[in-house]
């Protein structure tokens, strides 16, 4: 066995199967194309799913790939195990060979054994005595896989090394229905050093750590129906999966995947960035080692996910990415690194993996900006999480103390006892005796005795569901919360936490079923493909109606006036795809004398099947023939906008930088909308430059070339075509080339030359989400309408402002006039505020003398209409100073709304709190509010009750003083 690098292993695997007639297929995106059943690409077969289902044909029957995969959410979730085991990862590479109805078990087994054990070129040369094989042992529905066992024995595997296993381990299925079959797994004996229990020699398969599965050969030979019946497939197929990280550990002679060269450079970089170097001989530092492994793994996952277009968010794929990033950041903090560091790991990932994934060279700069922004945001969120945890601790203590307080007879004032406890807990070093003597001297001694007993006897527990909410919402580490609870003398509800976590995982599994193709109604899945002829014509005669669908169910006919979908064997209608909306038009009768249905659009519910959305004018039945006629004017306007997006994409990259990548688009007859990766707003002068570049291309009337059936490797690597995020490409692609300015993979319909667009006018730019901007534009007649509108506005502005004669445009003149007026308005507002403040202060000059005294506390309540909240705060501060010690309550009516502010001098906050005062007053004016013990605010809607509320202020304060 030759020790080789991870990159060599990947290349050897691919070359071995190329030598066996397999087509090398590049890894697909981590975002599954046209498959809403998957959260992320999690296996090599994902990109071939439609081929296995029979919905897509390729010009090859054998394939080999190294597929990038992520398992960190939904059904497949390894996130919590990563870093603490030898072989769990969020991101990994799956090596696989595939047969689509070509070879089957015998050849698949022979190829696998040759690659693993032979010493020929590109083979691994593993000692066969360290390998074990499993087969399906059979069950009530499927017999034992004796055929596979026979082929393993023929290839040289001793019978005693072949083990039958249950369906749980050795029967694979794509989903609840569809292709399925038995499988054979190959295991490698890592030796006694890897044993679960040191020194304990357990036989295969009773030691999961020692015996490692390195390859799974899936034999797809049945089709499972909805009632569970298994029918032999007419063309059995092969799907295999070998984890690159695992086979690298085997071939490099290490026990953990993290000790291979796929990870060690990343771990070294993590040590440098966190400043925490772990010495191998320090066994006690295992937790730090785990943190470094987590950082290395999560840096790989985040880099590839963001490169493939996923951005941190609060739901879906973006939410999982956010969890991965924040878990990595947290472990950096555990190692002592408080500053952003994770974004630097992106460059380390790029340097290690750019040979196999050259796209990382282009995306790394953009990815680092996303990661840095998330690190900075997480730092802010952690502060909020700590405050939430403090609130949860407070609630836990009160929930535990209240039953002790309430057990006293006769009944007592719970709020006063809790005030005494809160005063102690919020002032470190303070005792109940201090509070009794210096802060609440009027409180009965019995209340302090009850408070002491409540604090002593209560057994507070941090509710598990509340802890999980903080964990899930803010990403606070579980061990951090457990340690903080212990330090606060609060028991942590582990059982409740795990229950809440399991409930969340069940919701996630329900949201992402994973597997069977359930997104389309069953009626579509059995239909042959529609022949699309719309690239070259707007009309197809004699198209046969294959199916009619109404409300998701197949029907024999649609009557006049009914709406539904029509599937034809041929069509000229383009279906929604690649951002271009489907065509509109008409279906004519076979003699072309009658419009039988009006078409409002078309979609592809299943790959290759075109469903036309129609409203029938006359009865149309399955088996009828119709002529398809596309509305040429709508098609022309749509294609102008589609070609415009290609020009806009190239121009944005020229002006803003090569990090710009399409993140979505919409092209219809009225406009074009283009989403792209960029971190700041596009300046007006940059938009103007983009617009000028685009229109120079339009005026140049450059020919728009469409190259058909280009091998995807040639398109991307030789022609430099851009592959767009979220799009699914086959092995042969269409390339749309606009001179030397733009080259993209695109299945849409375009103008013949750029001059047909007429002109492009950018009409808007804004933010879509973090790191994604949107530009909207119009072309052709749409741009003409926009220019006419702008001209009308300019004419009106010119009439208002007159002509300056110095070359100033109407827009510049209007902008200057508005700026001057805004400054005037600001100046007038400042003057008005000053007058109001002066008037209010003057009216309050002797207000302190009108304060009333309640139980030894001065209370001043005044109405100050017309004063803004900021000014009310200033007045409160001023009046508190004049009072020296006391409570200030100000109320104002502004625009039909009530504003209340309560201020309490610092010496009184242990006796009476501003938040409790304002809460009671706010209730009287139809509102609510809160704040700090010394300052609180509230709003309300009942202006008529404001005077009464202010008059009651003294009574409210007295009640709270007890």
Automatic annotation (TrEMBL):
Any single Gene Ontology cellular-component annotation: cytosol
Annotated Alanyl-transfer RNA synthetases family profile domain residues: 4-789
Cofactor comment text: Binds 1 zinc ion per subunit.
Keywords of the record: Aminoacyl-tRNA synthetase, ATP-binding, Coiled coil, Cytoplasm, Ligase, Metal-binding, Nucleotide-binding, Protein biosynthesis, RNA-binding, tRNA-binding, Zinc
Binding site for Zn(2+): 642, 646, 746, 750
Pfam families given in the database record: DHHA1 (PF02272), tRNA-synt_2c (PF01411), tRNA_SAD (PF07973)
Gene Ontology MF terms: alanine-tRNA ligase activity; aminoacyl-tRNA deacylase activity; ATP binding; tRNA binding; zinc ion binding
Membrane-crossing segments per the record: none
Keyword 4Fe-4S: no
SMART domains: tRNA_SAD
InterPro entries: aa-tRNA-synth_II/BPL/LPL, Ala-tRNA-lgiase_IIc, Ala-tRNA-ligase_IIc_anticod-bd, Ala-tRNA-synth_IIc_core, Ala-tRNA-synth_IIc_N, Ala-tRNA_ligase, Ala_tRNA_ligase_euk/bac, DHHA1_dom
GO biological process terms on file: alanyl-tRNA aminoacylation; negative regulation of DNA-templated transcription
Cofactor entry: Zn(2+)
Domain comment quoted from the record: Consists of three domains; the N-terminal catalytic domain, the editing domain and the C-terminal C-Ala domain. The editing domain removes incorrectly charged amino acids, while the C-Ala domain, along with tRNA(Ala), serves as a bridge to cooperatively bring together the editing and aminoacylation centers thus stimulating deacylation of misacylated tRNAs.
Protein name according to UniProt: Alanine--tRNA ligase
Organism, scientific name: Tunturiibacter psychrotolerans
Higher taxonomy: Bacteria, Pseudomonadati, Acidobacteriota, Terriglobia, Terriglobales
Name of the gene: alaS
